Amino acid sequence: MSDPNNYLETFENPSHNRDYLIEIITPEFTCLCPKTGQPDFAKLTLKYQPNKLCVELKSYKLYMHSFRDRGSFHEAVTNMIAEDLIALLNPKKLQIHAEFNVRGGIYTNVTVNHKWG
Amino acid sequence: MSDPNNYLETFENPSHNRDYLIEIITPEFTCLCPKTGQPDFAKLTLKYQPNKLCVELKSYKLYMHSFRDRGSFHEAVTNMIAEDLIALLNPKKLQIHAEFNVRGGIYTNVTVNHKWG
Amino acid sequence: MSDPNNYLETFENPSHNRDYLIEIITPEFTCLCPKTGQPDFAKLTLKYQPNKLCVELKSYKLYMHSFRDRGSFHEAVTNMIAEDLIALLNPKKLQIHAEFNVRGGIYTNVTVNHKWG
Amino acid sequence: MSDPNNYLETFENPSHNRDYLIEIITPEFTCLCPKTGQPDFAKLTLKYQPNKLCVELKSYKLYMHSFRDRGSFHEAVTNMIAEDLIALLNPKKLQIHAEFNVRGGIYTNVTVNHKWG
Amino acid sequence: MSDPNNYLETFENPSHNRDYLIEIITPEFTCLCPKTGQPDFAKLTLKYQPNKLCVELKSYKLYMHSFRDRGSFHEAVTNMIAEDLIALLNPKKLQIHAEFNVRGGIYTNVTVNHKWG
Amino acid sequence: MSDPNNYLETFENPSHNRDYLIEIITPEFTCLCPKTGQPDFAKLTLKYQPNKLCVELKSYKLYMHSFRDRGSFHEAVTNMIAEDLIALLNPKKLQIHAEFNVRGGIYTNVTVNHKWG
Amino acid sequence: MSDPNNYLETFENPSHNRDYLIEIITPEFTCLCPKTGQPDFAKLTLKYQPNKLCVELKSYKLYMHSFRDRGSFHEAVTNMIAEDLIALLNPKKLQIHAEFNVRGGIYTNVTVNHKWG
Amino acid sequence: MSDPNNYLETFENPSHNRDYLIEIITPEFTCLCPKTGQPDFAKLTLKYQPNKLCVELKSYKLYMHSFRDRGSFHEAVTNMIAEDLIALLNPKKLQIHAEFNVRGGIYTNVTVNHKWG
Amino acid sequence: MSDPNNYLETFENPSHNRDYLIEIITPEFTCLCPKTGQPDFAKLTLKYQPNKLCVELKSYKLYMHSFRDRGSFHEAVTNMIAEDLIALLNPKKLQIHAEFNVRGGIYTNVTVNHKWG
Amino acid sequence: MSDPNNYLETFENPSHNRDYLIEIITPEFTCLCPKTGQPDFAKLTLKYQPNKLCVELKSYKLYMHSFRDRGSFHEAVTNMIAEDLIALLNPKKLQIHAEFNVRGGIYTNVTVNHKWG
């Protein structure tokens, strides 16, 4: 169902000599609750150390927008985004951190690590 | 006296390939002081790395509400919640952190760690 | 149903020469949602300029606690508290401001003024 | 095109004796840019002094959600929401304040007043 | 019982041509609760527009310290300090604002105005 | 030298029935110091109540960018922007507030009001 | 003793058509305590509406520095700076606000207004 | 001179299975300067991992109050409190952190660790 | 194309006995987007442990300004600045952290480490 | 030129049993720029673990004041203060951190460590 190839594009890492970290923060992530159909909102933070490829920013934004009309559980959607980006970039390390807005008086955050430390 | 089976439900961990962290923050925890019968208030933060099971959010909220009319000492209630969740989830690691509201000019926090490192 | 005489006590205004303002802030107000039975939480701020009487602080705290098990709509409970205190104190002016915790992504505040402007 | 009757419901003002103010804050408002089709996000604050009717909170939330797939210019959508609520509630006074998220390095806020000053 | 003459000293207003405002903030005010003998703490803010006299800062600090061992109700002590300073300075206008630390989950502030506006 | 016609565009005010306020905040304004040629930076806030016309946001952004290579004194540039927008929009009221970044340990703000009240 | 002519320079107001406000904030004001010789520190905020003249910023900075080695009481120095600038600029209105750093647990602010109203 | 036995009481650790951390924050600590007799103020934070005993909160509060009239140097009093609590509780680890209010423009903090690292 | 020799100057490290860290924060970095020609803005933080040379501050400022009219991708420009400074200073360790302003609802940070840890 | 013996005094460490940390924060450090003669300002933070001696607070304050009229480069003065205190106290470990106020849009911090890591 999730086909990131429709959205995500890459460019070649401009610095092969030296490891470095890229952090991309999306405070405007929104999807739908699969149970109620009501909108959910989250702040999504991607950090990764590139290998040969970097994710292109505009394509990443469109990928984020592609969740707007999909039903997605908190834990599942965060893991799915991590898997998509790991498959795309084969990064040296990667972390996805999602902070979902309060529902029923409860705040939920999910953090997925790939070779993170 | 505490019977979490009345409230807590689980669902299967959607990601078995990769370890990740779930954080659930409840700023609206309230119970009663066993000495005076007066209400106490706390912000409760649960963090855990799931094994085969995750705690279902709505059932967790009801479990939190179940303390509303119970008398509970700060140190004891935080440990009891940790024991209930460890028994339920058998998590890879887990932490409960409770920040109790000021009483008599004094703020009390309690932190219970399970295989936390 | 609300019988503030069970809780609220007064003492004589210690300063008759000069008008002044008393502000009493209760960040730990909680009641129940009349529709769902689930707990609601609010920060309640009372401001008043006393006439002949002031409200005694400990009795005010117990009055606040008396809402813990009652079902109360946001708009109605704020007005009811205002009416109780106006009847008790006959103040020169009075304001009640209630800030309810977020529910369904929405924050609600209610402000009742008595001879305030 | 906007038909608020599909969403908005009212209940009778519980306090006719005394004027008071209701404030409803929606940090999760989202619509689409009519030019680009890209999502826009805003924090929407409604304040009003009720006359005979109050807006029911759950119906208000659904009304907010109804903008999720509509193209809406900042200035026009804020005015349209104001007109819908004024027609529904005939309030003694009303204010809508929308704070749109940054686009192109620029933040835009729109404030509509009805008998406010 | 309160004898401010033991502490408070004045100096001549250095600017008679032009009205101006002096604000003196004391975050370290402490007295005793007359009921329980337990310590109370407050932040005290004095604002005044001098007439012929200004209060000397070191003497004001000692006057503040003189409450350390006295039992004082919130409303009464704030009014007493206002009266002492009005008698001492005969100011064009004066305001005392006391913010008492939380007790029993309740914050209390008291504000006394003299010809303030 | 300043020719706003090269940048600024307008659209028709979508609400003629009711007065309302538009606020446009630009944290990324930069120009050059006429004395030293060194860059200056400011946060520029425009507020106005539209008459028949509103300023189009993208054209406003380009107008802001047009100052990037111009030498401009703080007081003069803020007034010039106000004059350009007043000539363009003939607004019911307008305010420009510029907060310049610290230079030599000193922060400078300039506020220009047009029928602001 | 204070000779502002040694420091302060002016330039002609670039906007005679329209009244506007200039605010100059100096967080690095320092002088000496006349009693103890110890350094005092303050944040000084000047606001004025120019008439025919504006104060030149670099000269204002040097004027501020000229207090570094002078003994100055809080109330007196704030009034003296106000008088110097009023004599220099003959402004339509002017305000000086000085926030002195804490001494002996007490914070002191002084505000001088000229036609500020 | 310090006799904590007059104040401090203990209760049995309710959780022997699992190590956990207790943090008790006292923003209202006050003592006297041994040189000048003037009051000092501090925020005191105790953290410890209990062994067989926990400190009872109300007795801890009274112990804190017992310093109100004692002359105490910053470094010495923080160490003394640490020694008293270590003797009382024989904790698995303990830390005392004291943040003293500014005096003469200087802030002083003292941190004592027991098996903390 | 980048010729830092036109800007950057050094001075001899004043402390050869002891390692220490220098941090230089530039909140006013601006360059151009190579795709659109529109300005980008960032806060740039350099940290380094000097070897024999330190970078002179005024020359560093001019080097920062030299990017004002250049097109530069986020990832590339951060790496280029790191390489220039490493070549200039041969530091014991060095880190560049760039926080770019939001574009399209997305914040991007880039961190380059050299022997950092 | 720097002769700390004129200012700095010590007292005997009151706790030989146990290592602990002392932190002394001076937000009011000021010296002169050796190039321009203009004042510089910094917040200076000293942390150290005492050996046999502690630095006396009042003498430390006077030592800080002694830089008021001296020309001092950022990197050099921070190292000089570290050397003076290391020679005076022979501490088990020590850190000096200086945060200089912004100059030319650039903030500079310097951190010197002695046996710190």
Structure in words:
The structure is a homodecamer of 117-residue chains. Chain A has 117 residues and is α+β, with helices and mostly antiparallel strands. Chain A has a single domain, classed as GTP cyclohydrolase I, C-terminal domain/NADPH-dependent 7-cyano-7-deazaguanine reductase, N-terminal domain (GTP Cyclohydrolase I, domain 2, 2-Layer Sandwich), CATH 3.30.1130.10. Chain A is 21% helix and 43% strand. Chain A has 2 helices and 6 strands, in the order E-E-E-E-H-H-E-E. Chain A has helices spanning 57-65, 74-89, and strands spanning 10-12, 20-32, 39-49, 53-55, 93-103, 106-114. In chain A, the strands form 2 sheets. Chain A has a 4-stranded antiparallel β-sheet with strand order 2-3-5-6, with helices on one face. In chain A, strands 1-4 form a two-stranded antiparallel sheet. In chain A, a hairpin with a 6-residue loop joins strand 2 and strand 3. The longest helix of chain A has 16 residues, at 74-89. The radius of gyration of chain A is 14 Å and the shape is globular. In chain A, 38% of the residues are buried. The model of chain A has no long low-confidence stretch (mean pLDDT 94). Chain A binds chain B through residues 73-76, 78-79, 82-83, 103-114, and chain B through 13-15, 17-28, 50, 54, 57-58, 60-61, 64. Strand 6 (106-114) of chain C pairs antiparallel with strand 2 of chain D.
